Amino acid sequence: MTASALARVIGRPVAGRRRAAEPCELCGEPLPAEHAHLLEERRDVVLCACRACALLFEPGETGPGRFRLVPHRRLRLTGPSPSELGVPVGLAFFVRRSDGTVVAHYPSPMGATRWEVDAAAWDRLVGRYEELESMRPAVEAFLVAIVRGMDERWLVPIDDCHRLVALVRQEWTGMSGGPRLWEQVAAFFAGLDRSGPDTSGPDR
User: Fold this and answer.
1) Pfam families recorded for this chain (predicted)?
2) SS3 (DSSP) at 121
3) Which of 35, 144, 154, 166 is deepest in the core (most CB within 10 A)?
4) In the predicted model, what is the mean pLDDT of residues 176-184?
């Protein structure tokens, strides 16, 4: 991904607002300021979509072809501890795949590294937290940042995680990321908080 493409991903505000002149990535129609996102599951790529294209896909389900509609809900969580999943780093997100397996993603200067989570450990954790149990395959994630004084635990749409991965990749300097990176990561989570966590149910 080029530097300009990374900048576009990072620059997407929490609500998904972008220039109206930007086209739908499926049909080419101009996009409104607020619009839907689709996950192309095969390539793990998030695409911007107009309303007409988004309506082809049921929330959280596979529609025609290979796309899933990304939901909007954001929930700040209290209690779930990533240490129970054997997480070796303080910044990570967890995605349940369509086959039921759960993958931990660690943002890094090279993108996101991945590691499959122990199924029994995940089951023990989600058995105690209804929000995690309701997490939709592929399009939602359990996002945590317990690092540099931050203690953030969220259920978020997968496009938020893609923005965070792009941010880390572009801003990382030196061995530990550098002060600017961690300022930007803190600002990212503050933006989630300011958006007003969306507590909509699974059908949103």
Assistant:
1) DUF5947
2) helix
3) 144
4) 95
Q: Which tokens go with 197?
A: 């966590």
Distance, first Cα to last Cα, the chain: 31
Q: Do 35 and 23 touch, CB atoms closer than 8 A?
A: no
Higher pLDDT, 149 or 59: 149
Buried b / exposed e over 122-142, threshold 16 CB at 10 Å, is: beebbeebebbeebbbbbbbb
**Structure tokens, 177:** 């990321």
- Which residue in the block uniquely carries the two structure tokens 């929490």? 14
Measured in degrees and rounded to the nearest 5, phi and psi for residue 104 equal: -90, 135
CA–CA separation, 8 and 96 (whole Å): 26
Q: Comparing 22-26, 41-45, 122-126, 185-189, which segment has the lowest mean pLDDT?
A: 41-45
CA distances from 191 to 132, 142, 160, 195 (A): 22, 17, 11, 6
